[in-house]
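Quick look at the format.
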Amino acid sequence: MKLSRIVGVGLFLSAGLAFGLESDSEQPVYIDSNNAVYDEKSQISTYTGNVVATQGSIRIDADQLVVHLKDGAITKLVATGKPSRFKQLPAVGKEEMHGEGLINEFYPDKNLLIFMKNASVWQGDAKQSSEYIEYDTKNSLLKAGESNSDGKRVHSVIQPKTKKAQ
């Protein structure tokens, strides 16, 4: 394994992701893939082939994961797949949040997830589907659709709350 590849993996593992439980960012990052390449000049790590990345309660499954670094810190992750999947436990006692899309971008410093192309985000019985979904993990704010959506619509499912027996 080339030194640059080792450095790239080391930088990624030490940088951490910033979503999910507060303790997630303190956990090591584990990445399994068929191939890994680190371009030291551009500070980009590319993982391909059945990629699984985990950190604490966070899991990303993708065909390819591209990690953009700056001074050893992750600035952006781009996961692609058919689809690429993401899940996290937002807080103890809450249901897992799931998201998927053909292209997913993650911005740890902004606590922002963007799911694109055949995108869906769901938690429990609530589900949003659109071509474009933004999820602010810090404020639990979800925005679906785009102003120039060319007639594409946002589909939402909200299940009724079950009534308690008296």
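Next, a different chain entirely:
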Amino acid sequence: MSPVASVSRRDGVVNEIRRAVVLGTIKPGEKLTEVQLSEWLNVSRPTVREALNQMAQEGLLVQEPYRGLRVATLDTTSIMDLANTRMALDMLAVTAIIEDETGRRLRMVEESWAEYSRVEMDPDPVVRHESHVAFHRKLWAASENALLLRLWPVTEAHVTIILAQDQATRADPVRAHRVHEKLVKAIRTKDLEVIRKAFTEHTIDSAKELIALLDKQRVDAPQPDKKK
């Protein structure tokens, strides 16, 4: 983590914490304190407090009574809940996109895909993460559904946690490209069943694969020595 610039210091703190989560510098479940972050980022404690409160409202951080704030963790149920919810909301967005007879909304999808493709193989995992998140945010934006965009910050917070876990278990930009290319090709067909199948692979199947990998990690992890 590096000192935050003077411009939009609260947003700078938010961005640095997100970056640390994506890189694994800050782990899910880890406690965050105003004093520690203030020293790391060279900002005042009130600025840090504002940033932490914002992130708690969005869901990236969790407030625990008498214990302060910690990075949210997502168990198996939470991962699948998010996947199923995203699936429904993504299909809502895509339905609005393909129903646009002018083709303008579909062009917005193509533009976001082109932007994602330019940086998806970047060696910096944060750049890949941000391009991934931006692609899905712009997909919702292309639907021009105002309520979806109001829901996005909360969705993004949870997506960030899952992507950080995914990044730590299987950093595979080639696979990410393949899955997202399938999404775009499916949207181009304007066939809802084809689109649903592509989103199921991207969202539901990926969530199940991640859960299986996390379960395997827990099984393979060294067991603590029980000897006294």
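The CA atoms of residues 109 and 139 lie 6 Å apart.

See the schema section for token definitions.
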